[in-house]
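Hi! If you just cloned this repository, the fastest way to understand the data is to look at a raw example. We've pasted two of them here, unedited. The first protein comes first, obviously.
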Amino acid sequence: MPGGRRLLVILLALAAVAFTSIFRLMGALSIDGSDLTERRMGIEPMPLPQRRPKLADGCYHVFLDLGANLGVHTRFLFEPSLYPKAWIARKFFTAHFGPEANRDFCAFAFEPNPAHIPRHEAMRAAYSAMGWRHHFISAGVGDRDGNMTFYRVADDLGYTAMPKKGCLENNCPRQQVPVIRLSHWIDREVHGRRIPTRAYGGRGYVAGPRVVVKMDIENLEWLVFPDLVSTGVLCRNIDAVISEFHCTHLHWHMYPISFPERNLTLRNYTEAEALRDGILKEITTRNCKTRIEMRDDESHADDGMPWPKPPI
């Protein structure tokens, strides 16, 4: 072979070895050609999107207290022995969370009444000292994000978005409060949460993981429930709900109620009862895992129990 051709063959072989080494190095560094081009131009490659932390990350069980008022239902859950009369709530919790000795919960309390903020802040501090996880959200829940007018009334409702006629005629105190679309909040902060592999406090799991809801939101259930159903959040994310539907003869005085922006008016409790039955039928049609108990536990409404203190 002539000397010039032999030299060309040698150079081509060396070039092949060099390129092979370069591509192996690129593979080891997980760098592709486009990254190298971007780096030569002084442009850093776009980082991979990072997962946004969720409020319920690290929570095995989740309890949502909607219309928390003073937060006694969270106390029924964490401190059941202090509340012997709360047998409705305690039975419901045991059915879905397991025995009361299990304390692997995160509680999220939604309450729009600003008068209850100091109470929930004190509760959060006391529970945090115990190693319990209580999160207070100073807002109401609805089917849209925004604000809503709430009224301070002098009857058993206390604070409501649906006042009786006499309240409006007498110009009872009112104020705008934030409202969170519950279906979106659950999707954003609970769905896909990072569930611990080991029980909180080292205890074994009895059931779960579970997402359980107590709902007492004074007629806003007529907006929230349909939205939870239509978005699929109820059937996908929520295992059980204990809720008061305001549609019995005991609630006749609350009607009529109207949601003009939703084109919804309920003239009396029988129309509300029909709407409730339609919601429950739709849930059944969808073969939901969600169990719904139409009850309310008003025991220990004024609480009065001291905050827990960690052992010395």
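Ok, and the second one:
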Amino acid sequence: MPTRRHRSSTVPNPLPAVSLTAPPNSDSIGMSRMDDATLIEHGHHFGRTINTFTCILRLIKHGRFILNVLHSQQLSVADLPETEQVVWRTYRSLLSMLPQLESIHSISSLTRISKLIGRGIIAGRLDDKKMIRDNIFIWLTDAFGDDALGVAHLDKQDRGLNHPFTGALLCPIDLDWDDPLTQEAIKAGSYKALAWSWPLFVYDWGLSLGAENMWQGRFRSSLLVAMDLGGKTQPGDCCIYGMTHVTPRSIAYIIMQVHFALSSCRFFTVNDALTSSREIYESTITFFKSSSNATEMRELLVWWDE
């Protein structure tokens, strides 16, 4: 197993409450400890392990609003709607990375911090996109030889559904890519590989896959493991963030990046209809969060941590 990169620390429960009143000179004290490069690096980590599509300033404002609701109405987090619980957990994760945010209240300071973290999220996603684009070419060529002929290194025009091999990897598992009518339907957009019909590349291809066991080999493919960004910055991340285990969101991030790398799309855009990157990312997270999948999810995370 390659060394893992996407690990996260366990967030203390509960975190200290965010201060509702600003101590004297708190903004200047907090800002003096957060230079641009550090905030951008925090953005790299946040996007890879927590949420790659979050607007940070909106998250901070929403998180503080929820905090006020919890305090003023004497509620527990469990009393909140599920959507608000998700926002709260994401906000707490941000606070665990940047506890200085508790004492920063000026809009100009929060805007600057948010922009730099957001820049880091985008830059990290772009760096990972380029690295996985290159690594996936090498991996496919080494693993499948002649079957992967024609998959170009830099030019993505002949990837995706335009190439029989990458098309097969992107085909939903319950469909037959070798059927010409199925190929036509997929290319026409009649089918999408999402939480109810996963693409072949997320599975362990060494197993006999069947509809009777939806978890058989799922999210255990050697391709996902190989693209886990393992050796790039993990030692530093482990030191800075105290990462201890792979998270469902980091697996979803890898799936999104691999899906994009296999596709013929050249440019990553948040709401691109061709690759549905955001839809794939969020539907994967939703699937992982389902209580009916809890046992299998625990087993999957143990497997990834081995």
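That's it. A detail worth noticing about the second one: The longest strand covers residues 7-8.
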